């Protein structure tokens, strides 16, 4: 029988693996959005440095997906560390139980 700590650790570990895969998928979407946005850049022939470069593009360059993917990967790594600690903690402690005994008459 597997104790509760090991079950929670395994759940956290599986959740972290899912988060890391979703983060990597989001980063790949960001790279695709960056490629698409870089192809739609149109700049004026004459550049007025006082007003800016005069370039226009469509899309968000994949920044939203990139930031979200990085956050998902980092959170997934953190939860994965917690899951590994839970698995090892459950394996080491086994089915030991802690019993707290309370004295009604404390020492004076």
Mind sketching the topology for me?
Blueprint: H1 4-39, E1 42-43, E2 55-56, H2 63-93
Antiparallel strand pairs: 1-2
Explain what the structure shows:
This protein is mainly α and 108 residues long. α1 (4-39) runs antiparallel to α2. The chain is built from 2 helices and 2 strands; from the N terminus they run αββα. It has a domain at 9-41 and 56-93. The protein has helices at residues 4-39, 63-93, and strands at residues 42-43, 55-56. The two termini are 44 Å apart.
Question: Could you write a compact summary of the structure shown?
Answer:
With 108 residues, the chain is mostly helical. It has 2 helices and 2 strands, in the order H-E-E-H.
